[in-house]
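Could you help me review a protein record that somebody else here produced? My question to you is simply how this chain folds and whether the tokens agree. Thanks in advance; the entry in question is below:
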Amino acid sequence: MYYHASPTKTLQLLIPHTSNHGVPLLYLTQKRENTLPYLSNAVELYGKRSGRFPTGPYHKWASYGFTAQGILRLEEYYPNAVEETYKGIPGYIYTVESHKNIKKQQDIPDAFTSEYPMIPVSCEYIPDAYEAILAAAREGKITIQRYEEISDSKRQWIEVSVRQQLKETNRAEYQAFLKEKFTFLQE
């Protein structure tokens, strides 16, 4: 079985979409808990909540990595990012069966893609993504690295990375998000 997260209810067909990589793909995982970061997008929330960018498309944002054991590690790149991004946000986790068109994604553990649409066999409603993330963390299925726990070297990497992304992007909503969330950009 494979899992896919969406904010949209009652999808009858999961369709590949173009993400930050520029290629239309349907993203899947074999671990249900690995879909949780995709139930919300911090850039989209910023755009809608600020009223500056009420409609998309939006730059995709999910700051995570993996432990040596392959467990998803949700990382806060700015204070309270996890709660701010996921608290009170509902969504859906769709399940699809194995299929020959599903291919392993080489750069992300337990991740797969399909260039073709897939028919879901089930759909699970998630009333609050933040509570689902906390439950998965309590069960040891994911970890959360809070902003306060990030090492100095990781903070330096975040600063360099964010400054580089700000220079390279031409997306107004993403530029505004970065400037709002990363105070070191105002220095």
